[in-house]
Task: structure prediction
Amino acid sequence: MVTEPTAIEFTWKPHCCADCAIRHRAVCSYSTPAELALLEKAKFYKDFEPGQEIVSEGEHTQVLGSVIDGVVALQKTLEDGRRQMVGLLFPSDFIGRPLRPVAPYDAVAATRVRMCLFHRREFEDLLRGSEQLKHRLLEMTLDELDAAQEWMLLLGRKTAAEKLASFLMILSRRAAVLENRPILDGMALQIPLGREAIAEYLGLTIETVSRQFSTLRRKGLVDLPDKRTVALTNVAALQQLAGEDFDDTASDAVA
Amino acid sequence: MVTEPTAIEFTWKPHCCADCAIRHRAVCSYSTPAELALLEKAKFYKDFEPGQEIVSEGEHTQVLGSVIDGVVALQKTLEDGRRQMVGLLFPSDFIGRPLRPVAPYDAVAATRVRMCLFHRREFEDLLRGSEQLKHRLLEMTLDELDAAQEWMLLLGRKTAAEKLASFLMILSRRAAVLENRPILDGMALQIPLGREAIAEYLGLTIETVSRQFSTLRRKGLVDLPDKRTVALTNVAALQQLAGEDFDDTASDAVA
DNA sequence: CTGGCGCCTTGATCCACATCAAGGCCGCGG
DNA sequence: CCGCGGCCTTGATGTGGATCAAGGCGCCAG
Result:
């Protein structure tokens, strides 16, 4: 194996919005060709390394934009260092609030990340004039709010085992949508977070997360081929444990 | 004392939007007189008693609208009955998601509530044509998302004492904005929730909430003249305990 | 090969909050 | 006046997950 210094290089490098992989899911997805041309002129790309801060809490942010590739964690920190993740963004998700200059959280690249960015002022100007952008942004914000409320139920009322099961189901569903395939027994799930980040997602400690992974393995609900991969060996049981009554298990329930 | 059967009757009964107490904070606050006339025709009022369900989880909701008076709790329930509050709405807040027919939570009147309602279809039609409504709704949704993320930090990482202190500060700030006055030592805070609802807000049990109230009293941070009233005797210490570093204590920081 | 570091797992112990249980207070109806 | 039910408080005990502590494994540098 030859060590490649830039092994995880992005394979895909759009120069025009029409070719963009997230064209039909991102904030621009309702935009007309005319509007797209304006966005095209204003946008610029930027890459981030894992662990790198994209915006930081309290900062007066000058940019906002869409995740093209990679995963971004939003997290809040108490003075004594206790930390809680409050958002986990995948390709096509939008970072930054128009009309709110000060960020209420850190946004940190969890993997290598490529962003499609805009200068705040320019984006706000475009937004003001665009019914489509505004509508899509409202939709996306409502989705994020729904996710946040589901997350609150998890943080406030679920046990450690239920939390981890819920987390795995959430990731599965997300992956199913992005990759346009159903959730099936045996599917391997790439987890873009280390144990510490998972703990911050779930409001637990790293030790408890580790123990719960071991418990799930012992109970035969998952396999752990390596620490960043989970194979779901019993999706139904996992869903049950998560306290959800969806049954989109083997259906092609893809938005 | 003569017992008045309808003692908490609403004193204020608008018939036209221009006179409405929430005219300048609600979803309609950016609307032009022309648009307001359309809303005026479509709106209707409805009152709810404490404990009454306004919408219920999984229901295909036909109405949405603004809280005019009273307090509404949004809550999610696990199959075995564990319950978590995920929203607490005051006058001018908006209930219901345009474009999302199925409610993901119960909305329950915590006090007597008066709502200004619209039929879903009519409201969505109005929204489609209105830059102002859409913009205001986006703003309000972003605010709700901010609140939800702050709440996630509370649920995931704060201790019982910190949770209760945070809750009191959140209520104080809300009351300060609605009543347009600063937060001062000695101010009496009316709590629109019983102990059980507070526990559901904070992800605790009713017993723990009760004990934490007693602890705050013993430490001299609050007085408890009756079970629905809290007098803040040391706002700075309470804020400190809540883990916040705002200092809008004695300022007229009113939005 | 060796040592060190980052990340994860596992075990032992502790403690904050849940659970179980027993009243207290107050308003209401008889 | 009493008894009852709703709501809250307080005490005793239990327990899930935190904390403390000790390695294990893989990777990299030397």
Observations:
- Chain B touches chain A through 39 residues (CB under 8 Å).
- The CA atoms of residues 7 and 112 of chain B lie 11 Å apart.
